[in-house]
């Protein structure tokens, strides 16, 4: 056990020595790993932020159906029955033009809207809430179906934008998955290549060490340490890059969100996420190192 | 003990460097290996160290058959062997001290004990005080001594030297051979190859003469 610890300490000191001998190369390599890992991390936080916004929004799609002013009560009743029977709808609510005017007045405060008007200009309307599991195409179909009704003036799909945002997020998540996979592969290749270069640079040392009785584990150890260290530091750097970018971007995002009346703020990488990032970059770098080492050490006898 | 039984080494391409060679070297023996370059001296030493594997026959070192040994076990055999390479194989990216230290790091020696041994080995070959230098600043003969220090620092029971006197003038070569003799006196088995037989003759030891991969009388 003591012997094993000693061998590992020797490997660690050899690793640090190698890094110290080529500080610029080590630093550049770290930067590449850090930037590569910062992309998916930052992207993930962006999506997490957007998701927190849609969580506050009504997701049930709403339709407003405005009726022609010329429509009489029997036609309105017929339409009401028809809507009640529609399986796509959760509920429907009739808003008469008087009610609509009252609401509008309440929303505007003291001003008497009717003062300058001889007549109520607002139409009768239905506010429909569709079931959440109804796909967007069917909502569109419902919308055009209602538009063709003779009693109907106009149909508006109110919550379409919330729905669109959700779809955008879904697309973002899919894109994130692609980015994660691609950059994971890239990290493995980057580390693998860095290790391969080191093996080439240190091939004399490896050759001599093998000739005088070094085991494969002895040769492998410094490279594994190097990769692990690069993974940890690269992960830290990625967290730093993302945190820095967030504090740079957040004020303008806050201002933009406020102009839409939304309490939107970019999410901050928390400790758990930082730990996961570190773990993932370390594992990926280790995988890259082990592949490179096992591929290139076979040439030494 | 080193024992060769009907050993043949054929390199890719069909060249036989060693042909059906059988011999024994007893523990503590000092044996010279003579022959022109290309006679198979280096290959024979590489076979003893397990750097090359025989195409046929068996190579026994301390009663272990290297021909049938697993690759993973070879390093432990090599730790009983000190190698002095024809091309020195000194690492120029580190100090004289660190060059000699490498075999001890491989075995996993403690810091104190390792330090003591490195200094002792450097002292033995006459390089004390030069431990902090870069090997580039050493003369050819000194580099040869450094290579010897690295080969003996872990106190191997077998020492293999491939043309250790090749590029040295006669006096310096005599010094090196004296050094080998002192290892022989403490019980190390030595196999030394050289193409210059005049040097060996003075020692009155067994000489194995190789030609085209076979012994000549």
TrEMBL record, chain A:
Keyword flag Mitochondrion: no
Coiled coil: none
Annotated ranges, domain FtsX extracellular: 62-155
Listed GO biological process terms: cell division
Transmembrane segments: 27-47, 168-195, 223-245, 271-293
Family in the record: Belongs to the ABC-4 integral membrane protein family. FtsX subfamily.
Purpose of the protein: Part of the ABC transporter FtsEX involved in cellular division.
Identification of the protein by name: Cell division protein FtsX
Species in which this protein is naturally found: Amantichitinum ursilacus
Automatic annotation (TrEMBL), chain B:
Subcellular location: Cell inner membrane; Cell membrane
Annotated PROSITE patterns: ABC_TRANSPORTER_1 (PS00211), ABC_TRANSPORTER_2 (PS50893)
SMART domains, alphabetized: AAA
A Pfam family recorded for this sequence: ABC_tran
One annotated GO molecular function: ATP hydrolysis activity
Any one GO cellular component localisation term in the record: plasma membrane
Cell membrane in keyword set: yes
GO biological process, any: amino acid transport
Membrane topology type: Peripheral membrane protein
Domain ABC transporter: 2-217
Keyword entries, A-Z: Amino-acid transport, ATP-binding, Cell cycle, Cell division, Cell membrane, Membrane, Nucleotide-binding, Translocase, Transport
Oligomer and partners: Homodimer. Forms a membrane-associated complex with FtsX.
Family of the protein in this entry: Belongs to the ABC transporter superfamily.
Function: Part of the ABC transporter FtsEX involved in cellular division. Important for assembly or stability of the septal ring.
Protein name, as recorded: Cell division ATP-binding protein FtsE
Source species of the chain: Amantichitinum ursilacus
């Amino acid at each position: 056990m003591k012997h094993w610890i000693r061998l590992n300490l020797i490997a660690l000191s050899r690793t640090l020595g190698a890094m110290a001998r080529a500080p610029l190369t080590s630093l550049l390599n770290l930067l590449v790993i850090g930037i590569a890992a910062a992309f998916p991390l930052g992207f993930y936080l962006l999506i997490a932020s957007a998701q927190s916004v849609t969580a506050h929004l009504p997701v049930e799609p709403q339709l407003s159906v405005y009726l022609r002013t010329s429509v009489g009560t029997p036609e309105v009743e017929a339409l009401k029955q028809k809507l009640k029977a529609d399986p796509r709808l959760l509920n429907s609510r009739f808003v008469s033009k008087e009610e609509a005017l009252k609401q509008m007045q309440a929303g505007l405060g003291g001003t008497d809207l009717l003062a300058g008007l001889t007549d109520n200009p607002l139409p009768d309307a239905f506010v429909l809430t569709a079931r959440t599991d109804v796909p967007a195409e069917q909502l569109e179909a419902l919308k055009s179906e209602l538009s063709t009704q003779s009693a109907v003036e106009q149909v508006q799909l109110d919550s379409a934008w919330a729905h669109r945002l959700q779809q955008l997020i879904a697309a973002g998540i899919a894109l994130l998955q692609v980015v994660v996979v691609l950059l994971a592969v890239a990290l493995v290749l980057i580390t693998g290549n860095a290790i391969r270069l080191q093996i080439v640079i240190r091939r004399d040392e490896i050759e001599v060490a093998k000739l005088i009785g070094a085991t494969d584990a002895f040769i492998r150890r410094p490279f594994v340490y190097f990769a692990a260290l690069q993974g940890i530091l690269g992960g830290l750097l990625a967290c730093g890059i993302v945190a820095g970018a967030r504090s740079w971007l957040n004020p303008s995002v806050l201002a933009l969100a406020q102009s839409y009346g939304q309490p939107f703020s970019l999410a901050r990488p928390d400790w758990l996420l930082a730990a996961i990032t570190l773990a993932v970059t370390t594992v990926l770098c280790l995988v890259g190192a082990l592949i490179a080492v096992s591929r290139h050490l076979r040439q030494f006898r | 003990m080193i024992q060769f039984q009907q050993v043949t080494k054929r390199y890719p391409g069909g060249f036989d460097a060693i042909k059906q060679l059988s011999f024994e070297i007893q523990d503590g023996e000092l044996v010279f290996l003579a022959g022109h370059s290309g006679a198979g001296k280096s290959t024979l030493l590489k076979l003893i160290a397990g750097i090359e594997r025989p195409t046929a026959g068996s190579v026994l070192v301390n009663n272990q058959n290297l021909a049938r040994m697993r690759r993973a076990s070879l390093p432990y055999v090599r730790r009983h062997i000190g190698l002095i390479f024809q091309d020195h194989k000194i690492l120029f990216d580190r100090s004289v001290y660190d060059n000699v230290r490498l075999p001890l790091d491989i075995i996993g020696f403690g810091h104190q004990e390792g330090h003591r041994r490195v200094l002792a080995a450097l002292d033995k070959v006459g390089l004390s005080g030069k431990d902090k230098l870069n090997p580039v600043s050493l003369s050819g003969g000194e580099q040869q001594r450094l290579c010897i220090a690295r080969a003996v620092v872990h106190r191997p029971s077998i020492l293999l030297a491939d043309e250790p006197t090749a590029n040295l003038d006669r006096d310096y070569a005599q010094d090196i051979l004296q050094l080998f003799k002192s290892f022989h006196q403490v019980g190390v088995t030595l196999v030394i190859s050289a193409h210059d037989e005049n040097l060996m003759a003075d020692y009155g030891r067994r000489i194995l003469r190789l030609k085209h991969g076979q012994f000549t009388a």
